[in-house]
Amino acid sequence: MIFNWFGLLKHPLRDRRLELTLKMLQGRSFKLVIDETGDKKKGKHTDYVARQYIGNLGKVDNGIVSVNAYGVLGDLTFPLIFLIYKPRKRLESGGVYKTKPQLAVEIIDQEAREQGAGSKGES
Length: 123
Prior knowledge:
Blueprint: H1 12-25, E1 31-40, E2 50-54, E3 59-73, E4 76-84, H2 100-114
Antiparallel strand pairs: 1-3, 2-3, 3-4
């Protein structure tokens, strides 16, 4: 898939990073990769830390997990956007639970909505 990632620009640091990435790409197409990443954390003071499966550890442990979108162009891999996975038991009052696959779809759908479904498939 090829996206116009400017629709996801909502945070100043991310805005600038994505702006520079898109400038570097000079309009070239890239592959979109969605992945999840987990990091082991001690304690429960960081939001959304819970006992959950941490892929890079290969086991359930106390940690935080994110769903990430990366671009791949040849041998170059670059970060695009991420969303934090919020375990049901750690949701704030009124929070909406979303699975990791739902977060991945949200990353893609958010861009499609903001660009008027202007993404193009690539075979």
